[in-house]
């Protein structure tokens, strides 16, 4: 049985779907016995019928910047430590938001000027591109 607000594992989804397919109850009965919302069970059943997958879909959202853009930002951060976030965004051609650029630069360990009226940024550029990419090959 699932506890409220938990995410069902692939095994739990498989058991729930198997129970429904074997006629052990209606969709509402099976959803209730596995403690998931009826609509959630229906979406899971529909996904299984379409794709054969029972694993939960990945959570989260897409990355705002990908490896090519991170490399460009890392190079620009090293060459132009006094550039503002807006300037780095424009120079790199990134289509994302200023916050996406800031988060990427923070992951890279880059120093940047916070705004045009403040003092110059300390030299040093970016620490490492590897910090921004996790061992599985996707950005963090």
What features would you describe in this structure?
The chain is rod-shaped and about 65 Å long. Helix 2 (27-33) packs across helix 3 (38-51) and helix 4 (67-79) crosses helix 6 (98-108). The two termini are 33 Å apart. It has helices spanning 10-21, 27-33, 38-51, 67-79, 85-92, 98-108. With 140 residues, the protein is mostly helical. The protein has two domains: 10-51; 67-132.
Key phrases:
single chain; 140 residues; mainly alpha; 0% strand; rod-shaped; disordered N terminus
Write down how many β-strands occur, each being a DSSP E stretch of 2 or more residues. Answer: 0
Q: From the helix content, strand content and strand pairing, which structural class follows?
A: mainly alpha
How many helical elements? Answer: 6
N to C succession of SSEs: HHHHHH
Detail the poorly predicted runs.
1-5, 131-140
| Cα-based radius of gyration, to the nearest Å | 23 Å
Helical content class: 40-55%
Query: What portion of residues belong to β-strands?
Result: under 5%
* Structural domains: how many: 2
Any idea what the shape is? rod-shaped
Mean pLDDT across every amino acid position: 77
Biggest β-sheet strands, sense, barrel:
none
Give the termini separation. Answer: 33 Å
Task: Outline the secondary-structure elements.
Layout: H1 10-21, H2 27-33, H3 38-51, H4 67-79, H5 85-92, H6 98-108
């Amino acid at each position: 049985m699932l506890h409220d607000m938990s995410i069902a594992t692939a095994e739990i989804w498989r058991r729930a779907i198997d129970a429904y397919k074997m006629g052990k109850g209606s969709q509402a009965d099976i959803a209730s016995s596995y403690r998931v919302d009826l609509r959630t069970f229906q979406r899971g059943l529909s996904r299984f019928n379409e794709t054969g997958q029972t694993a939960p879909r990945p959570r989260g959202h897409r990355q705002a910047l990908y490896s090519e853009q991170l490399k460009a930002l890392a190079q620009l951060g090293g060459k132009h430590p006094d550039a503002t976030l807006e300037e780095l965004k424009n120079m790199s051609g990134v289509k994302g938001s200023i916050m996406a650029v800031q988060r990427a630069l923070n992951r890279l360990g880059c120093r940047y000027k916070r705004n045009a009226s403040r003092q110059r940024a300390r030299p040093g550029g970016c620490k490492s591109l590897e910090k921004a990419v996790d061992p599985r090959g996707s950005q963090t």
